[in-house]
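Q: what sequence does this backbone want?
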């Protein structure tokens, strides 16, 4: 068995499956007189968005640990694009499922650690590390 450790960068926007980030709060209704260009660039309810990202990440890891590529693929938007570790591109849920299935069968003991979750108005980025054991 080979233990690997890599950095993980995931743009969760592709995973949210229609779950849009909450609207940016209107500074005028929040008592902030700053011009629009100086308003906060995070959703009004960033904590709820962070919780949803954590839920999706946990569901992804649980399904991957169970070699369930179909469930993992269902977490992606229908028109998602996934770039694999080798640079291969998979377009759409079916292609993502087909790309992940053999990889999951060769892995075990997947651990994902989020180290930097950034919530913006249009994109959420969840970065961190993962470790896994590759069955040889």
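A:
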């Amino acid at each position: 068995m080979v233990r690997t450790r890599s950095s993980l960068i995931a743009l969760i926007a592709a995973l949210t499956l229609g779950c849009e980030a909450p609207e940016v709060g209107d500074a005028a209704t929040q008592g902030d007189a700053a011009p629009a260009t100086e308003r906060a660039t995070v959703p009004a309810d960033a904590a709820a968005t962070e919780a949803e990202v954590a839920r999706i990440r946990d569901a992804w890891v649980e399904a991957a640990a169970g070699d369930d590529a179909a469930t993992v693929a269902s977490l992606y938007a229908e028109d998602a694009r996934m770039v694999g570790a080798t640079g291969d591109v998979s377009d759409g849920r079916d292609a993502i499922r087909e790309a992940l299935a053999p990889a999951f069968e060769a892995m075990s003991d997947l651990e994902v650690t989020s180290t930097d979750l950034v919530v913006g108005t249009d994109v959420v980025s969840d970065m961190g590390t993962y470790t896994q054991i590759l069955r040889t």
